[in-house]
Structure of IBP4 protein:
Amino acid sequence: EKEEIEHPNNSFSPCSLQDRKCLQKQQAKRVGNGNKMRSSGSHREETRPIAQGSCQSELHRALERLAASQSRTHEDLYVIPIPNCDRNGNFHPKQ
């Protein structure tokens, strides 16, 4: 089993060269992945529930309903309310 080493020249980046914010996120992601120890054999992700705010859990339910909806007309999709959440998963105040 050969471990794949990420080189800057061969790693895929979805960012354009002018998008500094995206490039910084990709750089941080690569640095974070480099610090993790790689194990040989089967690797399982730890699946523990992430604490979500009330708005984020409602948004997740709305997205699941959108994904499961069979009808694709605009009127049918407008029936599903999509909450306005902040970064912490809480509701934004009325704008």
